[in-house]
């Protein structure tokens, strides 16, 4: 009986030590929260298949489908810049519809072809295109932008040489407190990133209540300006002071 009781006591002490050792204590004596699982290492394009509350995917396949066909040449004069449009697979977005939306923005008389400075045309052949406009999920756009040293945190769009990368979340949701319809933000984000491809830098809001220059970083806030999506206004190139 004594041996059995002694074994029982020893077994209980072993279990108690094991439990205490398994529970990390904070300095105040409360159990420390479990650290979140680190999960896998850096993911390849499209590896994260989580879905945002709005229903669009956070990550897609990481590969793209290019729009077929060509658009008419737009613009009266100037050098011709050919662009290609591509949509990430797995986004649920219609490739021809996105291409048509981009074409409409770049063909607008308030756009980058105003003033006879340049002409644009959409093409399907990557070898012919001067740059490609991508519609990519937040995760894929973040990884693509990071290849050029840009940190978007999966939130903003970006431009790298020859690549205009539109974040799917911004294309579908715009940004909080933008104060204009979604179509205005879409025109802005295309014109802003394409503007970088055309050599334009960032500009500042010229004053409270005035239209925001298209090269202002409107995604981060309007700074007192009102949303405006175009590089030309009332027949003139509209710009703010250059941001160093």
TrEMBL record:
Pfam families listed in its UniProt record: DUF3152
Region (Disordered): 25-63
Chain ranges of the DUF3152 domain: 55-223
Top-level taxon in the UniProt lineage: Bacteria
Pro residues bias (residue ranges): 30-39
Entry-linked SUPFAM superfamilies: Metalloproteases ('zincins'), catalytic domain
InterPro entries on file: DUF3152
Protein name, as recorded: DUF3152 domain-containing protein
Native source species: Micromonospora echinaurantiaca
